[in-house]
Amino acid sequence: MTGGGGPAMAASLARKLGVTTQATSEMVGRLAHDGLVTVSPERSLALTAAGIAAADTIFRRHALLEWLLTRVIGLGWAESDEEAARLQGAISPRVEAGIARLLGDPPTCPHGNPINAAAALSRPAGIRLSEVGAGEEVTIYRITEEAEEDAELLVYLEREGLTPGALARVVESSSSRDSVTLDGPLSRTTMGLRPAALIRVLPGKADPALFHRVPEEVAGLAVLIAQNLDRMSR
What we know:
The protein has 234 residues and is an alpha+beta fold. The chain has eleven helices and nine strands.
């Protein structure tokens, strides 16, 4: 929430989690007691250094599992996000390290978000797709964490090939129509300004080194797994 640029408040956190404000206040109280969160006089929340480290660990495991599930197991973006959330608390540091080595130590999740705070400092911020003018060519840079919470949006972006590293040209951006139309790698497509604001892009053709590629021999496992599953289903 703080990564979005605004203050994190207990009430907004409760809405995001779909729980009562009382339940959120109790949770925040426990986090504060454990030294992971501070509460300002204005009631805004912030992670401590220990809280950031804990959050980094959780996000890194989630991101590594998403890479594993999408590029090796062959799941879609939306499915992998749900499965990673189930699995992230069950793997040990040793397994986490092994998965990272297998995947080539990715600096981001499959959606392009930095895998931890240190990686975030070394990467450009990008600009909102909703702010790009007509006629401009851009590279899809990252699908923000807020966008990741919208399963339908993830399915749409993956289906249209609007994934990190893909080139696209903005055909029209209209506030009156509340839409952005662009020529993507697969077809011409249109989306609302709200989801477009959740996608970060870089001008022109971005440096390919910014986009992680899973080692070919590992990515090839997805084909073998799919073939075996197909044979088993017969």
